[in-house]
């Protein structure tokens, strides 16, 4: 099959893509338009938590598609109620609003915190976020993000997101004033290069927000739903946040997101929040299949076993090639290359023959690994052996 130049030309140019069209996927493997296979350790940026086309999700979608697609969010549907119950029972939250993307869930979290500030805190609206954080691409979530340069691309910004330094409590304290309503953070900063918060910092933030009558918001769009080896990453730290957002893995490959909040904080009035597709039963059915797979006895144990295998393998590679080690939490890990060969490695990996390898370099000196949570031990060893060769060739 030829590459479809005219088709590519019809898509708006927003990023540089290789001239490949992926036509099918199964588990940790993708296949392109020329029949070449790729071992996928990106999985759509941690979206395909059960790999490509996982059977439980495919079956759930197929069943739901021929039963009920869209009664409209003006009415209840059972899959969305079932999934909301699963999420509230597995967490410290009481209420769920479903959305379609991480940015939209975070936008909802920001609105909810501001609403709570209006009702309970005399109009306090500022939300302290962190340098290098990533919360999405709407105007408000770009403003909340700490990505360098994002304050000017689409100026003027949405006001009210002062930036502190991760794992530095004094930098947070220095920003608090009587207009501060919340602190929002990723338990592991994903896009900035897999930087986990310390347990101490997370606990200090919880104490600080309690002491100042402020909300603690965790953006678990990348870390939630099993990615870090716990159902939700905040559970590693022994704290209970007030608001949590989920997306990426929760849908296992389909657009699904969730805004979760404690009862006292669930203060939207009718009309404050909504969306044509919120709680769509087709997406909720996919979410249920994902959740039940991950919550099944033993699943997270095997995620942790595979994560340890990956971590050890990355340390071996780091030692062998004079790199700077690895870091991460569960199945969200990074190899610190110690030199700016990340982009070259990504390119060499995809061009590898006869089979390619899909890797991600969020920074030039770093590779990030987000395999399927059910990746096999053999697939991890295969990836490590290919990466070993690719590094040797790149140096
Ligand atoms: C990916 C991501 C987002 C944005 O999610 P979209 O679905 O792309 O809007 C927000 N926060 C974090 C932590 C993310 O990793």
UniProtKB/TrEMBL annotation:
Residues the record lists as N6-(pyridoxal phosphate)lysine modifications: 248
Pathway: Amino-acid biosynthesis; L-arginine biosynthesis; N(2)-acetyl-L-ornithine from L-glutamate: step 4/4
GO MF entries: N2-acetyl-L-ornithine:2-oxoglutarate 5-aminotransferase activity
Cofactor(s) needed by this chain: pyridoxal 5'-phosphate
Domain of life: Bacteria
Main location: cytoplasm
Location(s) in or outside the cell: Cytoplasm
PROSITE patterns: AA_TRANSFER_CLASS_3
HAMAP family, sorted: ArgD_aminotrans_3
Protein's name in the database: Acetylornithine aminotransferase
Protein's organism: Mesopusillimonas faecipullorum
Taxonomic classification: Bacteria, Pseudomonadati, Pseudomonadota, Betaproteobacteria, Burkholderiales
